[in-house]
Amino acid sequence: TPPEAEAAGADRREFVELGALTIAAGLAGEVSRRVASADPDPLTLDELDERLDQIGASYTSTPHAALTPLIVGGWRDAERLLERRLSARVRTRVTTMAGLFAFYGGRLAFNLGDDTAARRFASLAELYSRDVDDPLLSGSVATLKTSIAYYTGRHAAAADIAGQARAGAHPYLRARLAAYEARARAAAGQHDQARQALRDMQDTVWLGEPMVGTETFGEELIHCFLAVVSGRLGDGEHAEPHAHRSLAILQTTGGGYEDIGGTYNALAQAFLRRTHPDPEQAADAASRALAVLDGRPTRTVIQRSGQIWQELGARWENQRAVLDLGEQLQAHRRALPAGSSSA
To answer: CATH assignment of 219-343?
Structure first.
């Protein structure tokens, strides 16, 4: 090919390439404008954050029916935003919020006795947490997963979930995860490990401000879990004063119905783990745990009261207090939306 022809071909290729670049540059400008305007306005994001704050502040005292639209609506709104083109900064923020809504959705499903829905939301929340590498979100998910395992009778698995999560957990969650591990190890018969986890719980209490996810783990919960785990370990004399102290704090602070019910059940267990058990006081405490719910059926309280009732029935089935507790328990079991009646 003559040199003149080769030069002409090169000129044409350069012209075409420059033309393509010009067209692409125009498209790039349009895309740039779309990206710049794609992020939702700050007020939309602030409103989602505000909804999460509202859920976190009122979760333990709000009826589940009132929480459902807040949680499900917030999650759907966050997901709709994630379907759009977002800047990296905003996508991270919205993904974190979606993860927290999913966590609350799982927690609510768990409280209502729907373990299938709870596991699905927990799995989804875990995926969100991996996307943003957020230790606060991943730790919150771990508290949910260990609770599901514990209340479905997989005590060793529950202990392992909490124990493994503690290593890299946000400091805000370490005491709670240690408490959950202690409870599970005691139920699994791993007594020495349970006692060590209890010590870790007391050494890692968060002293800062409340954060999103689970509630702050403070003095009341320390006493509650000392009562729960001591009772599980068979030491009712040690458990009883801690349960009373936890209830006294809850009465002063106006704690949530799930916390109060759980502590009454810990007190009931303490009465049964004394050197000389007191079945009448145990039945009364478990009955008080159920009464606290007052039309707000909560799986953790109902299930634990059921376990207390079964233990009472094995030795004192004809006592009036035990019979009354059984009748009360059946009504609460029927009220659970998911129909959970597991003991």
So the answer is: 1.25.40
